[in-house]
Write a structure and sequence with these properties.
This protein has about 90 residues and is mainly alpha-helical. Helices cover about 80% and strands about 0% of the residues. It has one domain (about 1-90). It is built from three helices and no strands. Helix 1 runs antiparallel to helix 3 (about 70-90) and helix 2 (about 35-55) crosses helix 3 (about 70-90). The radius of gyration is 15 Å and the shape is flat. The chain starts with a helix and ends with a helix.
């Protein structure tokens, strides 16, 4: 059980690092054909897109800032917490 708990925590940590790297690279690399940016984009976009769509549907005007990474990292952390708490109950 400890291995599964630790795997979930490491996966969440990896996702959060990739999102942070994507944020940093978006300031540096503007070329979507860059292989590094493309790989990170393909991994993180399925996580960020629903939050970007939610912000748009709610009609929240964030200007030039994209708050979807913050919401995604928060949601991933909450979901991981719920899963690990359910594992503890088993």
């Amino acid at each position: 059980m400890w291995v599964l708990y630790e795997s979930i925590n490491r996966f969440v940590y990896l996702i959060q690092i990739l999102i942070l790297v994507r944020i940093a690279l978006s300031f540096i690399i503007r070329d979507m054909s860059n292989p590094l940016f493309r790989v990170i984009y393909q991994i993180t976009e399925p996580i960020l897109a629903p939050f970007r769509n939610l912000i748009a549907r709610l009609g929240i005007n964030t200007g030039m800032f994209d708050f979807s990474p913050i919401l995604a990292m928060f949601a991933v952390q909450i979901i991981a917490g719920i899963i690990t708490n359910l594992l503890r109950l088993m």
